[in-house]
Amino acid sequence: MHTQGSWEFIAEDGHGVFVYAIDPTDESNGQDICEMCCTGENNKEVLANARLICAAPDMLLVLSDLLESRDDPFRMDQLAKDAQRIINNVNGNRR
Fold this sequence. Notes:
Number of strands: 3
Shape: globular
Radius of gyration: 15 Å
Number of helices: 2
Order of helices and strands: EEEHH
Distance between the termini: 29 Å
Number of domains: 1
């Protein structure tokens, strides 16, 4: 079982990128998922990786729902929208 909650990241100049899970019962109490070092040369790549890591719980949920809902056209349409939202977030286009 993975760490529950929404996964977010914070980038601190000179200190790297920190991915953490927000506790759904107490948003002030997060749990560390990983830390990534970044230099000026790989900063964009590290931020893209952080977005991808943060999307992992949502991707698992959509994939699980996909397997359970493949005979329901309405649900499949919603899952396609959810998948597009996740892809947009991973690519840095939050809408």
